[in-house]
Write a structure and sequence with these properties.
The chain is 33% helix and 14% strand. It is an alpha/beta fold and 153 residues long. α1 crosses α5 (142-149) and α3 packs parallel to α4. The protein is globular.
């Protein structure tokens, strides 16, 4: 574990896990159903605001949180395995120590991509997820990347 508490397998810097081509592909081509792990009805949490941005960008945002709350009018689920329809992207708002297990769940449910939010880094999870054929981004936020890249829904 490195100084900021993230699992750090060494090797390339975090920027290597967030190239613009992959970010664009996830935002524009991967699909419109995003499961946001860690999203609850707490308006003061970053996940709530990012979910609003994703919705404005045309994404269906599915809350995944142990409380399974309805957020932004969308039914929540306690886990990815509980979501009864296909999920395209899994956006992860949990700490780095828990994020790898979420990435593994994303692979298990057949997601096409995984997005670890700002400050969430697990290089081993990245390697496993990419080896399973999914796109993955770490330590970035789609609410920042959408306007930065001029992405379109």
């Amino acid at each position: 574990m490195n100084a900021d508490g993230n699992t750090d397998g060494g090797g390339a810097g975090v920027d290597a896990y967030a190239d613009d081509a992959t970010i664009r592909r996830i935002l524009q081509d991967t699909g419109d159903t995003w499961a946001v792990v860690g999203l609850s009805g707490n308006r003061s949490r970053a996940a709530y605001g990012v979910a609003e941005v994703l919705r404005r960008f045309g994404k269906r945002v599915v809350p995944v949180h142990p409380k399974a709350e309805t957020v932004h009018g969308e039914q929540g689920y306690a886990s990815l395995a509980d979501v009864p329809f296909p999920v395209d992207v899994v956006d992860v708002f949990v700490n780095s120590e828990l994020a790898g297990a979420v990435a593994d769940e994303a692979v298990a449910v057949g997601a096409k991509a995984v997005w670890f939010q700002l400050g969430v880094v697990d290089r081993e999870a990245y390697r496993r997820t990419r080896a399973a054929g999914l796109d993955m981004i770490m330590d970035r936020c789609p609410a920042i990347e959408i306007p930065r890249l001029g992405a379109r829904a």
